[in-house]
Specification:
By secondary structure, this protein is an alpha/beta fold. The protein has eight helices and five strands; from the N terminus they run βαβααβααβααβα. The structure holds adenosine-5'-triphosphate (ATP) and magnesium ion (MG).
Length: 216
């Protein structure tokens, strides 16, 4: 095996540039000789995509925060078992467009669910995943939503109030302060090339660094 597999997750508020940067990072990795695999959350397996449709459909106004949190964790458990673990075992660099920190930021800080419970449920969902690294694309909540304006119809979470998105952004910042080893903060307000440059430094350091650490 040329490289040991690793998981790098991309997080940040809506419109921060996650999808853009995941795809630029995958290209850069492939050019450096790595096999990269992009996954998106919620989704990435047949079952998880079905759960995604439930989660994002604006028709389900009655969805309770706890139901939302458990559905995300269920979609995540399936993705870990069916896709992420096999890809890591095959030596791939897995790039996740959102992962567990989205649950902590949106359902924890955004909706006000108990963070300890979210950690427990997600620890169960992650099973034996082990360590990973996280790139946090930091951008004021309103700026991300402005980038998305007019681009597509807003899903159930994007339709939330600006104060909800503000709590999500602040929650992400708190998570990054709590886990500085795992979560690397990048200024997402810069142009895409400059953002990618910041990300690549963290990615290169992580791929060179084989030291074990806490999972999340
Ligand atoms: N650094 C940037 N500066 C300005 N605009 C950007 C930047 N990066 C991405 N964009 C644009 O902003 C919009 C949102 O980008 P993108 O879809 O990558 O964000 P996202 O974080 O994946 O959003 P979502 O949370 O909706 O999935 C797109 O129109 C994209 O072209
Ligand atoms: Mg996206």
């Amino acid at each position: 095996m040329k490289h040991a597999g690793k998981l790098i997750t991309f997080e940040g508020p809506d419109g921060a540039g996650k999808t853009t940067q995941v795809s630029m990072t995958a290209r850069a990795l492939e050019q450096s000789g790595y096999a990269a695999l992009i996954i998106r959350e919620p989704g990435g397996t047949r079952l998880s995509e079905a759960i995604r449709r439930l989660l994002l459909d604006p028709a389900y106004r009655e969805m309770l925060p706890v139901t939302e949190a458990l559905l995300y964790a269920g979609a995540r458990a399936q993705l870990v078992g069916e896709v992420i673990l096999p890809a890591l075992a095959a030596g791939k660099i897995v790039l996740a467009d959102r992962f567990v920190d989205s649950s902590l930021a949106y359902q924890g800080y955004g909706r006000g669910l108990d963070l300890e419970m979210l950690h427990l449920v997600n620890g169960f969902a992650l099973n034996k995943l082990g360590v990973f690294r996280t790139i946090l694309l930091d951008l004021p909540a309103g700026e991300g939503l402005e980038r998305l304006a007019g681009e597509k119809e807003r899903d159930r979470l994007e339709q939330e109030s600006l104060s909800f998105h503000q709590r999500v952004r602040d929650g992400y910042s708190l998570l990054a302060q709590t886990c500085p080893e795992r979560i690397k903060v990048v200024d997402a307000g810069a142009d895409p090339q400059s953002v990618q440059k910041q990300i690549w430094e963290h990615v290169a350091a992580y791929l060179a660094d084989r030291a074990p650490g806490a999972s999340f």
